[in-house]
Amino acid sequence: MSDLYHSACPYDCPDVCAFLVRPAAGGSLEIEPDPLFPHGAGFICGKGARWDFIRKHASRLTIPLRREGPSWKRIPWGDAWGLWASMTEKSIDRWGPLSVFLCRGSGSLFYSKELIPNVFAEMGYSTTIGSLCGAAGGAGLERAFGHRPVLLPGTVADHSKGMLLWGRNAAETNLHLLPVLERIRGRGGKVGSIEVRETPSTRLSDMWWRVSPGSDGLLALLLCRVLLEKRLVPDHWKEKTANAMPFEKMVLSLDPADIMEKVGLNGREVEELALWLLDNNPVCICPGYGIQRYLSGADTFHALVALSVLLGGIDKPGGGVLYGKDEMALFPASLKKRPPVSRRLPVSSWYARNRWQPPIGVAMFCCCDPAKQSPGSKEFREAMARIPFKVYVEHFMTETAKLCDLVLPSTLFLEEGPDWRGSWWHQYVFRSSRVADPPEGVLTDLQIFSGFSEKMGVSSDLEAQRESMDRIMLSCPGLKEVSEGVYFWDEPEDWGKGARSVILPEKAPDTSINQAGQRLITVHDRDFINGQTVGTWAEKEDVPEALLSPGSMKKLGLSEGKRAIITGNGSSLEVVIRSDSGIGDCLCLMKQGIPGVNLLTSPLVSPGYGAPYHENRIEIIPVRPEEHNA
Question: Each residue of 493-513: pLDDT tens digit?
């Protein structure tokens, strides 16, 4: 076998790095950046470098486990598949095929995972709709264009004069965007940030503006008003739009003083921001995912498109809104099988409603940990108690696994393949090789679901379908191999293009929610993603930290390092209070995906089937010394 393997990171991350993997002494693997990947910039982040540690982790599951009361019993694969199939048949006999529910997440974004639903192609099933990540933002773009337009980072690197990081903390969560910023600065351009807090990205920016949480769409429309009032817009902007007059009427009717109060900027700061945009035009607006995690998330992105239109971003190369795209766009459509019946339930709230008809009789989970990651952990646990039979396919005994009846050990991407990986940011596609053998008794997701289908009498060889996928991808005419395992896709870039004119918003975002208490904001951490905390500091943290401004701490009678109880959504969580002068008052900041934090969040749904994590108000109560000592 070769001493060098090609692979790629499976994480739900915009960077999607190409790996070189070398076997090392003692069965270890050395994971390095592929120097021939153009966007790799010669480095991979700590999350990617940690994969071999995860592969060898002592707590990895290696045998199927069946729940027996409060304990777990080892069970052979054949018996596990038989039990799974038997419970599924009972559910179908009683309630029909829609009572069978499959929940797939983004724990691995390799193409082979798209084959898993094919198991249910002959019988039908229920699954989720939307995403916990960027669905609301995408819905806002669709309102404007009728589709989610593609703007590529190469275009931005070559043509943008300015980059506005609007709630995007690239210095921690999108590290390979930083070389693009360097390219922009290399030709005299500037980098700006709009944020609710000080971050490493605001510190590397030339200018930054702190705003109130959830006010981003209002700020975008206020900037539109400034440009219109001062006649600083392109002469032909109306020709690009389908509803210029009602949009202009709405924008000019806004009360600037009211909006500035909601946004948290004064008149001088708003004009300063507007002039910055004009001075650094064409400017790429690069929004983060946090700014669409409100009920008004789609409205916010619709407003960002309007601002880009008034800046001439529709027809100026380098202008526009740089957001996510479909990382599965090249997955062979011929391999997708359509079931006779199906039902799609909102990903962020399906468990909050207990009267689905038919009810869920069997639930299956793969590449996800909703008990930890989804909003409304309390409601999720209550729903799991109502479901007669639950199956979990995973590497570790996660929070969701502990709630299931059957837990099945699966391989990591390094133990699978060949497989393919796309990106929702750049236009490179990777072919990943199998690098190492899995632990004895551990199967791939595809083998696990294929074994289940065989017991159901519905033969579906997913591994054979993966091999077909590999052959199709290798012959894909749109791909050009630039080095082994790294392919360039000449992806169509359709930002500002389409059969119809751009539709602009005709009403301002509604940002009104209950104003009592502190607003809870959960943010991504540079060391882990989507709650996958194995091998990180979060795995060892007994009591999570909550960040407050010095002003909030004084008002609440709290001090650095003291314990407090946060209550929200009918639940409570003990935390350690930390001071952060970079955030505003009435704001509480916690890391996303750490154990317990989503007990405090509500299982809401935003337009586009997004997850509005930030629409939560909490109360913070100091823990008295005698209570803590007890």
Answer: 999 776 679 999 999 998 775
Pairing of the two strands 571-579 and 545-548: parallel
**Residue 624, SS3 per DSSP:** coil
Rg (alpha carbons) of the chain, rounded to whole number: 25
Q: Interhelix angle for 216-229 vs 297-310, to 10°?
A: 20
pLDDT in tens, 8-24: 999 999 899 999 999 99
pLDDT in tens, 182-237: 999 999 999 999 999 999 999 999 999 999 999 999 999 999 999 999 999 998 99
Q: 553: closest CA among 529, 589, 521, 527?
A: 589
Tokens of 472: 């199709």
User: Comparing C-alpha atoms, which of 491, 523, 455, 458 is closest to residue 195?
Assistant: 523
Phi, psi of 351 (to 5 degrees): -85, -10
Sheet containing 419-421, strands listed edge to edge, beginning at the edge strand earlier in sequence: 419-421, 428-432, 486-489, 479-483
Give the other-Cβ count within 10 Å of 236's Cβ.
10
State mean pLDDT over 465-470. 97
Percent helix, strand and coil across the chain, each to the nearest 5? 35, 20, 45
CB atoms within 10 A of CB 547: 21
> Which residue is it, tokens 């990171």?
9
- 513: phi then psi, degrees, rounded to nearest 5: -135, 175
Torsion of CA 423, 429, 433, 438, to 10 degrees: 10
Give the residue among 219, 216, 180 at the shortest CA–CA distance from 201.
Answer: 180
Q: Which residues contact 629 (CB under 8 A, 6 or more apart)?
A: none
> What are the tokens at 540?
């060892």
Strand partners, 342: 125
Q: What pLDDT was estimated at residue 375?
A: 96
Give me the residues paired with residue 475 across strands.
none
**Cα angle vertex 417, ends 412, 422, to 5°?**
85
Instruction: Describe the strand order of the beta sheet including 18-23 as a list of residue ranges.
Output: 5-8, 18-23, 29-33
